[in-house]
Amino acid sequence: MRRKIEKSKYNIWQNVRYMLRMACRSRKSGVIVLCVLTSILQVFSSLTGMLVTPVILRCVEERALFSELMWTIAAFAVVMMALSGVITYVDKNSQLDKVTVRRDILLDLIKKDCTTSYPNLESQAVGKMRRRAYNSVSGNSGATEAVWITLSDIIKSAGGFILYLLMLTAVDPVIIIVTASTAAAGYGLNCYTKNWKYRHKEEVSSYGNKRWHITRRAKDIRLAKDLRIFGMESWLYDMYESVMTLYRGHLRKRERVCLAVDVLNALLVFCRNGIAYFYLISMTLRQGLPVSEFLLYFAAVGGFTTWIGGILDGFGKLYEHSLDLSMLREYLELPEMFLFDEGESIDEFMANCSKEGGGAEGCLELKNVSFRYPGAKEDVLHHINLVIKPGEKLAIVGLNGAGKTTLVKLLCGFYDPTEGEVLFCGKNVRSLNRKEYYSLFSAVFQNFSVLEVTLAENVAQTDVDIEMERVRECIEKAGLTERIERLPAGYETHIGRKVYEDGIELSGGEMQRLMLARALYKDAPIIVLDEPTAALDPLAEHDIYQKYSDMTGKRTSIYISHRLASTRFCDRIIYLKKGQIAESGTHEELLRANGEYACLFEVQSKYYGEEKWERKYS
Ligand code: ADP
Questions:
Q1: DSSP summary character for residue 495
Q2: Is residue 520 over pLDDT 90?
Q3: What pLDDT was estimated at residue 361?
Q4: pLDDT above 80 (res 277)
Q5: Which of 120, 372, 378, 380 to mutate to test the pocket of ligand 1 (most atoms within 8 A of CB)?
Q6: Which helix (H) or strand (E) holds 253?
Q7: How far is the CA of 377 from the centre of ligand 1 (A)?
Q8: What does the alpha-carbon distance between residue 523 and residue 537 come to, in Å, rounded to a whole number?
Q9: What is the pTM assigned to this prediction?
Q10: Which position has the higher pLDDT, 63 or 109?
């Protein structure tokens, strides 16, 4: 089976030009000059190394004076040391520039990740593309850095090739033909080994992943209790051993292939050297070739092979880098499905909207909205019509899987509907600047994110221009002041221990309160709570929801829950069932209607202990 040729959008030369452009953008165009310089110096260094023995032998043959011989040796030593020193110096100096160019491309990638249209983040195809893109910037061996070394190697090999070719033309063209063809055959053999490894790449990485997964699980604190109670360690150990057995089997196969290729390579070298020896010996016998020249030409044959191999190998590597670079560029240039800066500005539009009046200011509307996730077979939401008035407290309730989160994702502009429209102040959200649209929302989702930064930074969601007075105020309203002020570093305490050793871990409830403070600090006109409290008990959830409700004042608030008691205080409740609005009204109205909401409320009340609820909250 041959290695499948990948089709990429950009070819090798386009990608090389791209890297040259990137070097100029990072003001590191010197990296190009340094690469060429390193190549030239390396060719000279190799040439000097090859000339040492023949030149010294020549001195001996010509019975040169001892002092002359010593001067020659000293001159070679000095030149070789100087060349090696300069090469190391140039190489080390260019290293930092190469890293800078790579880092700037990495920053482009991070920016793309943070700003790309949300559906791109959930798409598997885009995820695969992103992983490849990150490969090309991860570490010194990533294509964005390794490409300079490869280019330098190609220039070096090409320079050496020309120089040695000129030298060998003095001998016999047959030697050149034999050397070139054995070098090409050797390259073919090496390609065979590489292809073999490439074909088994997935297999090797699957062994690696399994081993990594097992070792990770063994030290996973979430599994630690089960592992001890159920005595799972021997099971994990056996799993690890069976993966290792398969891996060892693969390694044995790989060694056999490598051995066969090495033997064939050795035969090729044997043939090439045999023929070279034959020609050079016959030249010595026929034309009286001195030993020094014999040695020089013989070394040139070996060097010539290396340069040809270097050129072929360099282009092979350049092709691989090019594939990675192409994927990186395709990801960076991935078209956005949402409008950002090119969309209509919300501020301007709102100003016009309030001037014109019409009662639509701040109004959110879903108009005949249906939605299907990319690649899914069925719609998740069906023909939803919903108007959320400014300042309204709306609850979206329903069983798990009813479509509540999807509805919120559409309202927040993370997805556009497959059918119908989401309108803000009567304007289709598709035409608005999406970044500005997001600024209208303050949301806490199920999987909320807490960054490993300080408490104050987590509340302000920035590390610049933090208004500490407001942070304190929001923390106070969220009921966390006492906890935070007891800490030695107060608001400057880091959260989490993965990055900072002195970081603190907050409990689930404290985390909720921190999220509340964050939502309050943002002071956005629309607040969304998408079951961030699902892991808490129903009473704690009710408590938190009530707190949010008290804090959010006249802002539009949307509360999602599958526990109906948590949102009973809302102005309006919509009960979602299988992606449709099944019932709508206040809590009391829905109970009076005696439909599914009332039935579910009754079941949940019994389950959670309605009496306790009544005693505590009515
Ligand atoms: P709820 O919030 O009411 O529990 P969701 O909106 O999360 O419901 O999910 C509704 C349906 O959409 C479920 O059947 C779920 O499997 C499906 N779904 C949710 N997210 C995705 C996704 N990213 N891709 C495909 N299907 C999804």
A1: B
A2: no
A3: 61
A4: yes
A5: 380
A6: helix 233-287
A7: 13
A8: 28
A9: 0.77
A10: 109
Statement: residue 618 has pLDDT above 50: no
What percent of the chain has pLDDT above 70?
A: 94
Give me the numbers of helices (H) and strands (E) for the chain, helices first please: 22, 10
What the block records as the tokens of 189 is 């053999």
pLDDT of 543 strictly over 80: no
On the 0-12 / 13-18 / 19+ scale of CB atoms within 10 A, 17 is: exposed
Contacts for 557 with CB less than 8 Å, ≥ 6 apart: 392, 393, 394, 526, 527, 528, 529, 548, 549, 570
Q: pLDDT: is 350 or 100 the higher one?
A: 100
**Which residue has its alpha carbon closest to ligand 1 atom 19?**
406
Name residue, tokens 């056999």: 256
Q: Which residue has the higher pLDDT, 205 or 254?
A: 254
Residue 402 alpha carbon, nearest atom of ligand 1: 3
Q: Please answer whether residues 536 and 512 qualify as being in contact, where contact means their C-beta atoms are separated by less than 8 angstroms.
A: yes
* CA 384 to centroid of chain Cα atoms: 36
Rg (CA), the chain: 35
Residues with CB under 6 A from ligand 1: 122, 373, 376, 380, 398, 400-406
Among 405, 414, 418, 528, name the best residue to mutate to test ligand 1's pocket (greatest count of ligand atoms within 8 A of Cβ): 405
CA–CA dist 279, 276 (Å, integer): 5
Q: d(Cα 290, Cα 61) in Å, to the nearest integer? A: 8
